[in-house]
Amino acid sequence: MAYDVEKIREEFPILRRQIGGRPLVYLDNTATSQTPERVVRAVVDGYEQRKANVHRGVHTLSQEATDRQEETRRKVRDYINAASEQEIIFTRGTTEGINLVASSFGSLLPEGSEIILTVMEHHANIVPWQLLAERRGLTIKVVDVDGPQGVLNQEQYRSLFNEKTSMAAFCHVSNVLGTVNPVKEMIAYAHRAGVPVLVDGAQASPHMAIDVRDLDCDFYVFSSHKMYGPTGVGVLYGKEKWLEKMPPYQGGGEMIKHVAFSGTTFADLPFKFEAGTPDFVGIAALSQALDFIGELGIEAIGSHERELTRYTQERLLNDFEGIRLFGTAPEKGAVISFLYKDVHPYDVGLLLDKMGVAVRTGHHCAQPLMDRLGIPGTVRAGFGAYNTREECDMFLAALRRILPFFG
Ligand code: PLP
After folding, report:
1. Rounded distance, CA 177 to CA 60, Å?
2. Are 196 and 108 in contact (CB under 8 A)?
3. For residue 49, with 0-12 CB atoms within 10 Å meaning exposed, 13-18 middle and 19 or more buried, which class applies?
4. Which ligand 1 atom is the nearest neighbour of the CA of 94?
5. Of 163, 183, 61, whose CA–CA distance to 120 is shortest?
6. Alpha-carbon gap, residue 139 to 112, rounded angstroms
7. Is 392 known to be catalytic?
């Protein structure tokens, strides 16, 4: 079936909005994607027709809500090809997933051991490990990039492993550079050294097929709101053998088998890690986002986005003077980060907004990478399933209008 972007756009009411009297060109998909009507309707349906707490009631509403939540869990399992739904933990997002692993799995890592991260990580995949390191006297080692091209130094990565290494964590796709890291090879290398790996999949899950069994990662985390789903919902995949060994992250209702003041026993997976009332309305609605992606085909979405990225990047390089690109790796996702001369990215972003174009500016929660590249931040355009070639041209035309203001 042909990729009909106009038909896709019809599902997104927000794309009909005007900003300052101009049609919205939404290129901030790396931060969050827009939401198709079917997902919004599922949220409304959850509140209007099915609002009852999950896993606690015998009554019809509670069973319906529970069924919908557990249906999403099975769809997520299939989306990433996990072995079982016991390995799918619902969280609030990527950030919470990493905090859960750093806190719970982290408590099992030997004191004085070492963790390997990369310089291109989002703060969500740095700070939880720093907190753990401080608590337990661990050391963090950092893999470098080759420079503005944004390719991880694989030789250095391998050289960081030694008998003290206890964990490695890195992103599948960089949220600044767009680099698609060779995670399968990196995981295989870590495993040969007996080291488990967490992959931050926040920027991969909306754009490419994920197969956690093929990757053989120990943990994989991502967020619903970046993949056309509702906010406040995320997924942590963990290998059952680790999840079974890990202590609970939070205590409370839902995560217990039996509570007594003499001692408490915990629920089986995945509920051991889902304390309290989850966002069951949002989780149910994520199912619709997965259907949306499934109907289009994740490969088709990815190839559409890569084509837009390639086109826009080429135009930026060929038609403008003074544009510096950050992230030109051969394997690259749907993100373009750039600077115009020495102009602060914030100023470019503000003027683009006046032209109806939404881009992100700043350090993108990747300050160590900005320091490494010696820049304050970038202007970042990220593409989604519904973006068009025409929008790329509108973005380029807007840049052509505003850049002369900076001299
Ligand atoms: N990791 C990466 C690579 C990201 O791009 C983001 C968000 O931009 C996150 C983690 C954090 O995601 P969330 O804020 O949904 O928890």
Report:
1. 48
2. no
3. exposed
4. 16
5. 183
6. 7
7. no
CA 71 – CA 73 distance, rounded (Å)? 5
**Ligand 1 atom closest to the CA of 171, numbered from 1:** 3
Q: Residue holding tokens 């690259």?
A: 332
What is the pLDDT tens value at each position of the chain, 407 positions in all?
Answer: 789 999 999 999 999 999 999 999 999 999 999 999 999 999 999 999 999 999 878 999 999 999 999 999 999 999 999 999 999 999 999 999 999 999 999 999 999 999 999 999 999 999 999 999 999 999 999 999 999 999 999 999 999 999 999 999 999 999 999 999 999 999 999 999 999 999 999 999 999 999 999 999 999 999 999 999 999 999 999 999 999 999 999 999 999 999 999 999 999 999 999 999 999 999 999 999 999 999 999 999 999 999 999 999 999 999 999 999 999 999 999 999 999 999 999 999 999 999 999 999 999 999 999 999 999 999 999 999 999 999 999 999 999 999 999 97
**C-alpha 122 to ligand 1 mean position (Å):** 7
Ligand 1 probe mutation, 121, 223, 231, most atoms within 8 A of CB: 223
* Dihedral Cα 288, 85, 220, 236, nearest 10 deg: 70
Cα distance from N-terminal residue to C-terminal residue, the chain: 47
- pTM (two decimals): 0.98
Residues of the chain by 3-state class (helix, strand, coil), percent to 5: 45, 20, 35
Q: Report the separation in Å between the CA atom of 221 and the middle of ligand 1, taken as the mean of its atom positions.
A: 9
Q: Pocket of ligand 1, candidates 227, 365, 378: which has the most ligand atoms within 8 Å of its Cβ, to mutate?
A: 365
Give the relative orientation of helices 94-104 and 127-136 as an angle to the nearest 10 degrees. Answer: 20
Please give the torsion angle defined by the CA atoms of residues 98, 234, 358 and 2, in that order, rounded to the nearest 10 degrees. Answer: 120
Ligand 1 centroid, distance to 407 Cα (angstroms): 35
